[in-house]
Design goal:
The complex is a heterodimer. Chain A contains seven helices and nine strands; from the N terminus they run βαβαββαβαβββαβαα. By secondary structure, chain A is α/β, with parallel strands linked by helices. Chain A has a single domain, classed as 3-Layer(aba) Sandwich (Rossmann fold), CATH 3.40.50. In chain A, the strands form two sheets. A seven-stranded parallel beta sheet of chain A has the order 3-2-1-4-5-6-9, sandwiched between helices. In chain A, strand 2, helix 2 and strand 3 form a beta-alpha-beta unit. Chain A is globular. By secondary structure, chain B is of the alpha+beta class. Chain B is built from eleven helices and 19 strands. In chain B, the strands form four sheets. Chain B has an eight-stranded antiparallel beta sheet. A five-stranded antiparallel beta sheet of chain B has the order 5-6-10-8-9. In chain B, a hairpin with a 4-residue loop joins strand 5 and strand 6. The mean pLDDT of chain B is 92. Classes of the chains: A alpha/beta, B alpha+beta. The complex binds flavin-adenine dinucleotide and NADP nicotinamide-adenine-dinucleotide phosphate. Flavin-adenine dinucleotide binds next to strand 3, helix 2 and strand 10 of chain B.
Chain lengths: 239, 435
């Protein structure tokens, strides 16, 4: 399997679960910080006898990677960047450029390379972790939100493109998860899940060949409500 | 940036608001330290008192990678935040076990080293330190030191039992033991008083695992009424048919949780009395033998999840002391009398005979003699009893386990010699101030 954003807690837990459940042994960990991935590689070797390769992928300066020689049929993409949480998002364009590159513009170029390779091979699954933040722009994080919206649309188009070509695309929309991205935030307990739980839910979606899943389930309904608020009201809200 | 959170250890007393920083990379912990604010490592918060609390806390729970395992030499290397429960899931099916384990499997390897935990086999095998070959220690900004008996040996020995005051353990290499099955052959024997239980411990020196449950509410002739449980790792031929189907069975990871804090009145003296009485009567014969799974033998409380909540919001303390062998019997009698008279009963009281200590690990808690661990619900009345028990421990030359301590006299806990410019906890500050 190929994992993009290997240092994400979700990636780690999902990869472990796959190795526990499936007959997969070859793992490619794509990471912007390969040094921080070394012990995880050992972990997968010791625990699951996996054959792990670490490949550097900095989405701010994406390299050319040859996917054709890789052995895989499952791709898990958790790459993402929420941005430095500052007051007004429109003031920090340096950071905004990073947000759009990591969550969308450079990420989809890499995924397109993988997609072409998978199309040639004719089978497999791509799992993309987007976010509920992409469903409606909010003043506090709409650069991230709009990049995720783009990514969600990309995954939906890719699914459509691959229809009848043997390749499945699963879009994952998390609400809140306890990960290193959010460790300095106060998150509402009832709406936040652990990486272990997230991995289980994603794995279930993968096995059931679902198209789009919200994790956890209540976010589907929360977003339904948020999306149904008329714009003339929504624009006055502080969410 | 670190976030402030309200945290508390297993006893739910005391509670603090701490700034928490998470470590993610065992090879390069990017910690910014400053001289005016000490920090302390925190594993899974399974110590009872204030040892892993402080103004600024470093969580190691994300350091959860296994790094190396060699079945031939029986050594494993893993990061400091790996839980014993994770180790068991990995080791047991392969026919290996943790060499020293406390009464819960939900502690980290870092916590096992920092408290130098002891188990039911202390009299045979010593503490966790007996099995550790080396560890990596973060000792200050940008400085990681490999410690073993041959490299930085002073720091190696000092760290065991030092409760995080020498630095943050990042990873460790230690020995595991081979097992034929994951079951324990167990004998339970009733003792009707203190002299009987002491004699049983002395008789059981050859058994690998020994521990006794003691009913702390008994007085007079029945003072010390208890049950000793002694065990050996069971060989295949000891298992019944059902057990033999999966001789290296791993513990069940489902736990029943107590979802809310019980109202405080639930645990009054009466219920404690009933609990102890039922426990005692469950066994009709003087001696029972059985073959039980390791989860039941070592971790009877783990399956109830957050059982600590039954003590209610105010929380509880665990009081654990050890008395030198020569004073053990008289001292134990005096303390048990004090407890029985106080009426502040304990839900859990565990008695054990420690073996000789390894003097190289001078910060470790165990010394040869009897140790007793018992819980008290927190209340205002408690400090008086703790003072009286402390006095008896002091008069008998004993000491208190820092992994449980939160209010004892400094003279009983300042046996740890570890000073640092960077590391300090609520506990170390309290003890230094009182000393
Ligand atoms: C039900 C129960 C039964 C128990 N039975 C026993 C028993 O039989 N024998 C026994 O010895 N203990 C026993 N304990 C106590 C427990 O084993 C110890 O307190 C252990 O240290 C807890 O580990 P932790 O990972 O939860 O660490 P924490 O509780 O978070 O921390 C404990 C101490 O270790 C330090 N520490 C933690 N991680 C690191 C690190 N990586 N580097 C440096 N310092 C670190 C902390 O600063 C603190 O001083 C029991 C506890 C419970 C709840
Ligand atoms: N946590 C939440 O509450 C939450 C909610 C909704 C959606 N999400 C989404 O879930 C996914 C996983 O996030 P997480 O919570 O696990 O956060 P995370 O730990 O920050 O993971 C995101 C990963 O993206 C990769 N990444 C970051 N910058 C990169 C760069 N310049 N180039 C290449 N890769 C880069 C990193 O992996 P490497 O270090 O291996 O490069 C990083 O670990 C993300 O897409 C996130 O947007 C999270």
């Amino acid at each position: 399997m190929i994992v993009l954003g290997a240092n994400s807690d979700i990636s780690k837990k999902f990869t472990e679960l796959v190795l526990q459940k499936e007959d997969i042994r070859k793992v490619y960990l794509l990471s912007s910080s390969p040094d921080k991935t070394i012990n995880f590689r050992s972990h997968l070797k010791v625990k699951y006898n996996a054959d792990v390769e670490i490949i550097k992928l900095n989405l701010l300066d994406p390299p050319k990677i040859d996917f054709s020689s890789m052995e895989y049929s499952l791709v898990f993409c958790a790459s993402g960047y929420m941005g430095a949480q500052q007051e007004a998002v429109i003031t920090n364009n340096e950071d905004n450029a990073k947000i759009t590159a990591i969550n969308y513009s450079n990420l989809i170029l890499v995924l397109n390379e993988i997609a072409q390779d998978m199309e040639r091979k004719g089978e497999g699954t791509i799992i993309g972790v987007s976010s509920v933040a992409g469903e409606r722009g909010r003043k506090s994080n709409f650069i991230y939100g709009s990049a995720k919206a783009g990514f969600t649309a990309y995954l939906s188009g890719l699914r459509n493109y691959f229809n009848k070509k043997g390749i499945h695309v699963l879009t994952v929309k998390p609400g809140f998860m306890y990960t290193k991205m959010t460790e300095d935030l106060e998150l509402p307990k009832a709406l936040t899940i652990t990486p272990e739980k997230a991995a289980k839910l994603i794995y279930r979606g993968y096995i059931k060949k679902r198209n789009v899943i919200y994790i956890a389930w209540m976010w589907k309904w929360i977003m339904l409500i948020i999306k149904s608020i008329p714009e003339f009201i929504f624009k006055r809200l502080s969410l | 940036m670190a976030v402030r959170k309200n945290i508390t250890n297993w006893g739910n007393y005391p509670k603090t608001s701490s700034e928490i920083t998470h470590l993610h990379d065992a090879n390069a912990p990017d910690l910014k330290l400053s001289h005016d604010k000490k920090v302390i490592a925190r594993g899974n918060g399974r110590c009872y008192g204030d040892a892993s609390l402080g103004e600024s806390v470093i969580s190691t729970l994300e350091l959860s990678n296994f790094i190396e395992f060699d079945a031939k030499s029986k050594t494993i290397t893993c990061e400091a935040g790996v839980l014993l429960s994770d180790l068991l899931e990995f080791l047991v099916p392969k026919g290996f076990f943790i060499p020293v384990t406390p009464g819960t499997k939900f502690i980290t390897v870092g916590g096992a080293i920092a408290a130098d935990v002891h188990g039911k086999n202390h009299h045979k095998d010593g503490c966790f330190s007996s099995f550790v070959e080396s560890f990596m220690l973060f000792v200050g900004p940008g400085e990681i030191i490999q410690c073993s008996p041959t490299e930085n040996d002073q720091l190696f020995y000092r760290t065991f039992g030092a409760m995080g005051l020498t630095g943050v353990v990042l990873s460790a290499t230690f020995k595991v033991i081979a097992i034929e099955t994951s079951f324990i052959y167990q004998e339970s024997i009733k003792a009707s008083n203190l002299d009987e239980i002491f004699a049983l411990f002395e008789d059981s020196a050859e058994w690998k695992y020994t521990v006794a449950w003691i009913d702390c509410l008994q007085k007079g002739k029945s003072l010390g009424r208890s049950i000793i449980m002694r065990g050996e790792s069971a060989s295949l031929d000891k298992l019944n048919k059902k057990q033999a189907k999966n001789p290296l069975k791993v513990h069940d990871d489902r736990i029943k949780n107590i979802p809310f804090f019980f109202p405080s009145f639930v645990l009054n003296t009466l219920s404690v009395k009933l609990f102890n009485w039922a426990y005692y009567l469950k066994q009709f014969r003087k001696k029972e033998t059985s073959v039980v799974h390791y989860d039941q033998f070592f971790y009877p409380l783990d399956s109830i999840g957050e059982w600590n909540k039954i003590y209610g919001k105010p929380g509880f303390i665990q009081y654990q002391f050890v008395l030198p062998l020569e004073n053990s019997k008289a001292g134990m009698r005096a303390i048990l009398e004090e407890i029985a008279n106080s009426g502040l009963g304990s839900f859990l009281a565990v008695l054990k005979l420690f073996g000789k200590n390894d003097s190289r690990f001078y910060n470790s808690f165990p010394i040869e003699g009897y140790t007793l661990a018992l819980d008290f619900k927190y209340s205002k009345k408690l400090s008086g009893l703790v003072e009286r028990m402390d006095q008896i421990v002091l008069d008998n030359g004993g000491r208190i386990y820092r992994a449980k301590d939160c209010m004892s006299r400094a003279e009983l806990t300042n046996y740890i010699k570890a000073e640092s410019d960077w590391f300090g906890s609520l506990q170390s500050e309290r003890i230094t101030m009182k000393s």
